[in-house]
Amino acid sequence: MQLYSDSYEIKSYECDNTLHLKLMSVFNLFQDVADKHAEKMGVGYTFCQQRKIGWVGVNYHIRFYKRPAWREKIILSTWPSGKTAVSGIREFQMTNQKGMVLIDASSQWVLIDLQKMHPLSVRKWLPDYEIFPQRSVETTFPKRNPLSQFDFSLTIPVLKNHIDFNNHVNNAYYPVWAIDSLSEDFLRERVLSELEISFKKPALLGDEITILTKLDGNVTYHDIKKETTLLACVKCYWR
Fold first, then answer.
1. How far apart, in whole angstroms, are the C-alpha atoms of residue 99 and residue 105?
2. For the chain, which end, N or C, has fewer CB atoms within 10 Å of the first or last residue's CB respectively?
3. pTM for the model
4. Domain 152-238 coded CATH 3.10.129.10
């Protein structure tokens, strides 16, 4: 099974104050449809837990064309487009019922040993699975250097609500923290059009997190850190 699609209706609690799908909900929907597809492929949560291995998201590149509104019905599709020695590439595409593309995304996931927390060979540890090489976003997940200068910072604690069943901060919070560091005036005048995020290290309950933000016209850069340890790098494009 190369491609998997599921239908969703946007709920009120998935929306922001404009009654459109909020960023955290986008990541949560991606996770949901990826989980369902991985289970059908035979490499999902059940398979991994039995072997004490797991998929960890390390990169996302997302393009936003139009956010769906409350009660809008959408179709979310996902498929594996490639794999390396220790990682898999997974695509996402969200459309409305007329076939209009609302959001495109590409992601990279590393297979790890959950006890030793180091990467594992995809070929050795997983059954072979088909890939569909079409990309939703043509990206190589480019790396960038940590910020040497920043315009302002925001410090927040990691609370219980941030923690998922892996006992670390759910990935959906990191891009939300980055955007929450921006002023209301900035956000009122702009719409997010593209986002790149690279996850480095997990944050844990009780950590104190600092978001460093640099403004460059309609591009913003965000380093999310715990003391001197870089946890995630975010780059946002605005229109």
1. 16
2. C
3. 0.95
4. yes
Q: What is the pLDDT of residues 24-36, one digit of tens each?
A: 999 999 999 999 9
Q: Nearest Cα to 182, choosing from 227, 212, 156?
A: 212
Query: Is 1's pLDDT higher than 60?
Result: no
CATH class held by domain 4-125? alpha beta
Alpha carbons 216 and 194: distance in angstroms, whole number: 15
| CB of 105 closer than 8 Å to CB of 137 | yes
Give the helix/strand (H/E) hosting 40.
Answer: helix 23-41
Please name the residues in contact with 147: beta carbons below 8 A apart, sequence gap of 6 or more: 212, 214, 221, 223
Residue range 142-158, pLDDT digits in tens: 999 999 999 999 999 99
Longest dimension (CA), the chain: 51
